[in-house]
Amino acid sequence: MSDPTEASEPVEATGGSAGERRVRVVLVDDHRMFRTGVQAEIGRTEETGVEVVGEAADVDQAVTVITATRPEVVLLDVHLPGGGGVEVLRRCAPLMADAERPVRFLALSVSDAAEDVIGVIRGGARGYVTKTITGTDLVDSIFRVQDGDAVFSPRLAGFVLDAFASTDAPPVDEDLDRLTQREREVLRLIARGYAYKEIAKQLFISVKTVESHVSAVLRKLQLSNRHELTRWATARRLV
Amino acid sequence: MPRWAARVTIDGMPEAATAPLAEPRPPRKLYRSSDGRWLGGVARGLAGHLGLPVIWVRLVFVGLFMADGLGALLYAAFWFFVPLGIGGVGSQRPSPFTTETASDGRRRLVARKPDKGQIVALLLMVVVAMVFVGSVDVGNGAKAYLLPAVLVGAGVALVWRQADNARRARWMEVGRRRRTLTLLRAAAGVVLVTTGVSGIFVLQGSAAHLGSILQAALAVLVGITLLAGPYLVRMTQDLSEERLMRIRAQERAEVAAHVHDSVLHTLTLIQRNAENANEVRRLARAQERDLRTWLYKPEGTGKDEADEPTHLADAVRRNAAEVEDKHGVPIEVVVVGDCPLDERTAAQMQAAREAMVNAAKYGGEGGAVQVYAEVEGRTVFVSVRDRGPGFDLDAIPADRMGVRESIIGRMERNGGTARLRAVPDGGTEVELEMERAEKTS
């Protein structure tokens, strides 16, 4: 995929020190082949710092494994037998809310349908990436989610911009239903394929500020009461 | 029902081929003609079967009708017993209203005709009936019954004709008639028949007993319904279930065909090109795109490769797909908002395409090319970024006029702006901005 020399970079990119940082991950996906692939790509703990502590192929298994292993990050497939990723999120809600050792979810899916994307994000996932993501970027995203930050793929950023732009009705909650100018700028750059570091340089702000903007957008996305959001996603069944 | 439909198509097709006296075929069967018919399609069907012009058959029927209504009885018998089919006369044979148009246009003309023809036929029937009633003298007693009998006949014809339509719609998959119209027609038929029958009773002098007769009839009807009702309901349920199964099977076959045509094909190609990584990636991307379109796009929205995109989002995706196919570099597309294409945005699309080609050619090694398009109010913004080595515009060699001319020049000629710049962490980004033309809102 990408340059092997980059393999150690993402850890630095998130601010942690390479080699020391560890993250315990559970893989939830109903395709064994895909789990094996991801495992091979990110599972070399000494190199990537990612330790895959469990795998699950359906909703029930996922809940059991997650409860038993208490990972820091769960890579969650959107389409799963037994109710899909949203159901896993619903049943793991107490674990997500845990103040001491929260379990955080990163949705990973082959589907780019707005319905699915918005669905899992509103279900509580901290980010959404497509399965075509490179191993390096995936490791990067996992650490970011572990830190409690949000991970937006360009497409997700596009969806959010679209969903929050196409509003005819006045917002119910001014604070939650609108994006600030800065947030909009950040999202736009994400949609244009910029990495957080590049965004920071472009806007003359720190990476931390970029992260806080994205997290704010994620919060709005999850908490906004706007019916349009869901309706918009359902109506937009395009690729 | 399917067996029957199959027979129709097998037999209906050769009907058209009879004219040039083709090779011997299984014996022809008599069908009522479903297109271009006036009433039940009996005359057309018969004409087709006998090889005569329709008008002759019709005249014979009218003539026979004059003979104590024999024609009507005969017609009714044919209508009742002969199944409806496709074809009949009119494909080649000269007939009053098929001769003038010969090619594809004719089909439409004929198909629209029945509605008018039906009214004509009904009027004709009424006139003939009047003449008949007026002229024929069958004794005072019998004469009085004629009007009710005609009413009953008209009602029956109305209902039968409708049954034909329903049946035809089922196997021709056309003519989804409005439900109210169907009900209305059925009701009209029933009213006509009831009036006719009641009329006969009244004339017979049993008007006094009409109430009790109706009561008895009602009782019998209720009894029959109670006896046959559950059976009928079961039958309809079975029928609809069977139809559902058939639709499912058809869908499955369609999916199988698609998977076979595209996915299996691609997999074979991938195996064959296993050592050529670029080709494999290209094939996989193309197939992925194709499959996504097929799975998620609603019916009829730009699924056809043939038609030109009319909206910005489609155009961006289409261009990206084509460049991707040609250069084997993955292109990620994000589109926010959409608007119809006008002259200016079309020029912008061309410039964007050029930028994508450049990005794929010179910056494709660094990873996927990211394309972002946004419509905000009147402004359309497109950016294309790659993660390649990047280049300095001032340092572009003269042979790469492509960038200056086809991107920057094109945008400026159309009143837009283009900016090329190096991204902080490597790669090049092309930004294209254009105001939409005035007339579109």
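qc> The radius of gyration of chain A is 17 Å.
qc> done
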